[in-house]
Specification:
395 residues, 2 domains, 7-stranded mixed β-sheet, 3-stranded antiparallel β-sheet, 13 helices, pyridoxal phosphate, transaminase activity, Aminotransferase_I/II_large
Length: 395
């Protein structure tokens, strides 16, 4: 029997997730410095680890309310209210998930009918496309490569007029992979267009705590009745392995989302929930020392790229730099493969992030300063050799 005939065509036709796929392809190169994966190199703060250990020692190791204990949902709601001025009823408008990856799938399964279209401003984190496909939806990319990687209300208006089947728009702010984030006036204008065309807004704000020289703003302030917000602790508290995410949404939307969550995963580990309460309360400002280091690393990489003539977006948040590939390469994959094989530096090809990413590459600076300095030295040497070879060919 052909086993592939059993699997849905929509699943078989899905492209592999580009970040992890490329990262795995280059991982066996001896001595490679991988700047591919967006994982903080910091340890989870000790007080949060202690809360998890305490939960185990106190035998808090059983099922909880599937949506999360009321204590953790209240802590999460209080956190975003204090930090970003968005307000949710912990009993009816907050659901905890196994990371934001689960949240993404829960929401698209709850929202989309077969054939419903979703606007994805690109470049964009590739997991969204897969979740939309699994849910039976269709992706409408909005290529932002010529718009400084920022969606404008004029552009959204144009896209909404041309694509009446679109039901949803997803924003990531700060952005992965560009680090771009939005101001209040920009979000308010986008919210007005979304309301005019009855678009549901999904706002992935997992990097909300990692912003530089500004306070994070959420579009939920301007269109709360139609906005679903993702957040979590992976990036803000260096808790990627704990797998804790949160969905915030008005009760009218959350009822359906919660049903999908229960069938998808039932509940988040009771131990993790105890640690999350500690993170949201005692650890409300745990990001501050980490953010200071991230900003220093950002500036280090930007300075190195400028020195060798590579254009890059200056990130306003997150911990990525999105930079142009040199002009003598035909594709981002070609450049990133050569950089990995010849210079032993791993970065992600821009085409992993949709049509708006081709011609660029993503550097994650969520790694040690020593690694970044060595990687930038190798990149500089690689480009110097590359430039000499090109001049030799031209001669």
């Amino acid at each position: 029997m052909n086993q592939n005939s059993i699997i849905r065509d929509a699943i078989l036709s899905m492209p592999p997730e580009g970040i992890s796929t490329f990262s795995k392809q280059i991982e066996d190169i001896p001595g490679i410095i991988k700047l591919t994966v967006g994982e903080p190199d910091f340890d989870t703060p000790d007080h949060i680890k202690s809360a998890g250990i305490w939960a185990i020692q106190e035998n808090d190791t059983h099922y909880t309310d599937p949506l999360g204990t009321l204590a953790v949902r209240q802590a999460a709601a209080d956190f975003v209210a204090k930090k970003y001025g968005i307000f949710y009823d912990a009993k009816t408008e907050v659901v905890t998930t196994i990371g934001v990856s689960e949240a993404i799938l829960d929401v698209f399964l709850a929202l989309l009918e077969p054939g419903d279209e979703v606007f994805l401003p690109s470049p964009v984190f590739p997991v969204y496309q897969g979740a939309i496909s699994i849910a039976g939806g269709k992706v409408d990319y909005i290529n932002l490569a010529n718009d400084n990687f920022k969606l404008t209300p004029e552009r959204l208006l144009q896209e909404a007029q041309e694509n009446p089947r679109a039901k949803t728009i997803l924003l990531t702010t700060p952005s992965n992979p560009t680090g771009v984030s939005y101001e209040d006036d920009e979000l308010e204008a986008l919210a007005a267009v979304a309301r005019e065309f009855d678009l549901t807004v999904i706002s992935d704000e997992i990097y909300a705590e990692i912003t530089y020289d500004k306070v994070h703003s959420s579009i939920a302030k301007f269109i709360p009745e139609r906005t679903i917000v993702f957040n979590g602790l992976s990036k803000s508290h260096a808790m990627t392995g704990w797998r804790f995410g949160v969905i915030f949404a008005p009760e009218s939307l959350m009822e359906g989302i919660a049903k999908v969550h229960v069938f998808n995963s039932y509940d988040v580990s009771s131990i993790v929930q105890k640690a999350a309460i500690e993170a949201f309360t005692v650890g409300i400002n745990d990001i501050e020392p980490m953010k200071k280091v991230y900003k220093e690393r950002r500036d280090l990489v930007l300075a190195a790229l400028e020195k060798v003539g590579i254009e890059a977006v200056t990130p306003e948040g997150a911990f990525y730099i999105f930079a142009k590939i040199p002009a003598n390469y035909e594709s981002s994959l070609e450049f990133c493969t050569a950089l990995a094989e010849q210079a032993r530096v791993g970065v992600v090809p821009g085409d992993a992030f949709g049509p708006g990413g081709e011609g660029y590459f993503r550097i994650s600076y969520a790694t040690s300063t020593a690694n970044l300095e060595m990687a930038m030295d190798r990149l500089t040497d690689f480009l110097a050799v590359d430039d000499l070879a090109l001049k030799s060919q031209e001669a």
